[in-house]
Amino acid sequence: MNRSCLSLICASAVVVGLLGCASPPQDPDERAQWEEENDPLEPLNREIFAVNRVIDGLLIKPAAMIYRGVVPEEGRTAVRNVLGNLKEPVYAANHLLQGDLGGAGDAVARFAVNTTVGVAGIMQPSADMGLPRQPNDFGKTLHLWGTGEGPYLVLPLLGPSNPRDTAGLVADMLMDPFMWAASANDLEWITYTRTGLDVLDKRAQVIDTLDEIERNSLDFYAQIRTLSRQRRQEELRRAAERAAAVPVQIERASAAAAPGPSDHASLLERVSLAERR
Fold this sequence. Notes:
The structure is a single chain. This protein is an all-alpha fold. The chain has one domain (about 5-275). It contains 14 helices and 2 strands, in the order ααααααααββαααααα. The protein has helices at about 5-15, 30-35, 40-70, 75-85, 90-95, 100-115, 125-130, 140-145, 165-175, 175-185, 190-205, 205-215, 220-255, 260-275; strands spanning about 155, 160. The protein is globular. The termini are far apart. Residues about 10-20 and about 260-275 have low confidence and may be disordered.
């Protein structure tokens, strides 16, 4: 396991270990608001959020602006496609863990088609074949397994999260075959480059959006907390809907494969003819 994985695991353990320091207010109205925000560590989260903003303002946002200004849109799309293609094995693993064999098969097919015909994922011919990308992660898997999200967390550099999604992030890293391949061959720089490009691309996509949110927010921290939680809840809702549809798909497939009355008659007739021979 490379050092970045160990560092993330240790940092996550420290943050989650601080959860016991928080206690809910006694006033009923304040407690209701406290539970709705799900942010018992707000003072600590605000401190981390402030540090993240400083780092973003000094390093990440300027780099993302240069990246957006220098690399044309077609080039950024190609980078995004390659990075997304490298995540397909992790998507497939999570589909399997969620009992979604069809989703896992689609992820494997997308990876095979885009890696070969799409030239390492630069192009996305799988989309034209009716196989659009379906991002998945272990946080969703834990949610479908019935694990609660826990309190809102702001992670250093990584931003909004919660204990369940933090554990999911670590699990996804451990499931990534390309990370292990790079580590086994002393090519950790590939993992760092890949992570850096992913951060730059994602930050470049939301430069204008985040600037507008900040300009129009009385409390930027609270607004980001609300929006990030709403976005994640929508992702989990869609994952739950897909998971709920899996048994129906299996049942329909089984019904289609099961022989009907005429099929049974034909089968018995063939058996009878075979026995006569």
